[in-house]
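Sharing in case it's useful to others searching the archive later.

Someone asked me privately for the predicted structure of BTB domain-containing protein, so I'm posting the question and my answer publicly. Question first, with the sequence:
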Amino acid sequence: MPVLKAEASHYHSDLNNLLFCCQCVDVVFYHPEVTGVVEAHKIVLCAVSHVFMLLFNVKSPTDIQDSSIVRTTQDLFAVNRDAVFPGASQESASNPPLRVIVKDALFCSCLSDILRFIYS
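And my answer, the predicted structure tokens:
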């Protein structure tokens, strides 16, 4: 009878590599007064929070029963639809990442740590 060998999961390291290598990034968070941007993936963010589902139009405000989630989304973020975006990589000019303004500079400065937590 053959012996089955269990392999260790690479899920955690693969997800962290996805965040740090910025592969397939489709959303960029920034604050106009904070240098740098924070890149992420909509699918990962939507999997963990209704706030991101609202932000990325996966769900509408009428789909969400909790009005505090709608307020939180509106208070923290705004989607920037301007064509010019300083500091963004131009790798995929045909399909640029969604640009999201983080309304609170302090929250924006903590966002990379929050994303590390989400991706871990």
